[in-house]
Design goal:
By secondary structure, the protein is mainly alpha-helical. The longest helix has 39 residues.
Amino acid sequence: MLFEFQKHISTSQATLPVVSVAALVAWFMLPSNPVPAAFSGEAYGLWEHVPLFLQMGWWSQAASAVCVAIAVYLMIELNNANVLLRVSSRMLSCMLLLLLVFVPTHSFQPGCVVMLLVLLSFFPLMASFQYPHPVLAFETFLLLSLASLVFPKLFWMVPLYWGLQGYLRAFSFKCFVASLLALLLPYWFFAGIAFVMGSFSDFWEHVQVVADVRLGAVRWDAAQMVTLGFVVLLFATGAVDFFINRLKDKTRTRVVYNMLIIHGLYVIVLLFLQSQLFWILLLLLLIDTAILFGHFFSLTHTKFSHVYCLVLLVIAAAIMTFQYIPGLFDTLHLIELFRWIH
């Protein structure tokens, strides 16, 4: 019975509600590392127009919690629409929720918006498998273009999506034209509004950020390096396990998972090329990692996998302690100071 916990957790209907309640409590109790100033500047496009009160304090945490709740729901629908698991399980949503709590980005930031729009882009992209329809291509790239308004360098993922369309056998000349129209549509409105408001220079600076190919020097702190290493370990675990057991899934499911692996590897490369955008790109990697490792956790039930998951749980607890304890100590210190004053 000791080695049955993994199967019980992955198939239980109570797992998602329990994880959701625990995550909600942790979301407002644990500190958040990145500060609003970290997401200011040209690299984050129109994010500077987001009200400051949404980037600080309880309002910020509440807004990010709403984004996470929507992302969890979208993961449920993505699983239902594409049958990503061979068993009835909400483990993909639970894994995404746990990873988002694990990463100390509980403030409302551009990554929250980008993560939602990229996750939404997976719906028409996966639906286009062997069905090269211009409408699906338009929807996919429109979501990418909208996300680029607050994260301009997301345009660097456009060639990846064209390649994924080809891999899904969903690329055609009409789809290519539709993708170009979708990419240009938000910027057509952006340019028009900027021209009318007399701030066309803002639009031009935004475009220049997309075209800026200068590589960022890797300047991660210890917490970021440890966090990325652990997330990549989970990603690699899910990818390797899927490759070993891929014949157990249907052809379409195998193609979708291969697409997710390619997407995740591309994001990892961008993380090293644009290390200054760590917190945004890491949230994108969490989408692929949640699906791949969730597949491993839900469908691989061996003694080795059970022991391995327990070891990962201990490592995750240690990393979270390393990330959050200093902030918790600061919080407790402020509470004691407040009590002393009164």
